[in-house]
Each structure stands twice: as C-alpha cells, then as structure tokens.
Design brief:
It contains 2 helices and 5 strands. A 5-stranded mixed β-sheet has the order 4-1-3-2-5, covered by helices on one side.
Length: 91
C-alpha cells in the first residue's frame, strides 16, 4: 500500500453536526494525518494523508453517520507532506 495525500471538500450538512470531531476520531483510528476546517460557504475542507484504503474508509464512515449529510465530495491528489505527524482542526 502506498501513502497518499488528498485535498477534499465536503458539501452538504457538514457544519454544526460534529463533522470535524467525527473526522478527528476516525483519523486516529486509521493513523491518518492532516487537517480540517469549516469554510464560509458551509462546506468543510480537509487534507488527509495516509493509505488510500484508510482515507476511503474514513469517507465511507462519514457518509454513514446519521447526523452528517454529505451531498458532494471533491477529491484531488496533492503532494505528500513528509514532515506531518498529526491531525489538526483549524479554527
């Protein structure tokens, strides 16, 4: 398995429903690093770095959460950050 990094934008009911908290919990389960932040348009932006399979599992778990309603996701692969060691929530 190869480590990747993706810039991901989540659209739908993703703010004010514990989205970033749930994402933080999931990245710890799968040893994924990166960050997440709320955007002014109501979306959430994130960069996730880890195994592609683990990132896919995190996204699937977010889709299956009963409080979160994801209408659209935009994903694109970006360069790895070799110095990154943890996940952070930006405020």
């Amino acid at each position: 398995m190869q480590k990747i990094r993706e810039a991901i934008s989540f659209y739908g009911r993703v703010q004010g429903v514990g989205f970033r908290y749930k994402l933080g919990y999931l990245v710890q389960m799968y040893t994924v690093t990166g960050w997440a932040r709320n955007e002014y348009d109501g979306s959430v932006s994130a960069e996730l770095q880890g195994l592609e399979e683990d990132i896919d599992k995190i996204i699937q778990a977010l889709y299956n959460d009963r409080y979160i309603e994801i209408d659209d996701i935009r994903r694109r692969r970006i360069s790895l950050d070799e110095n990154e060691r943890r996940f952070g929530i930006c405020y």
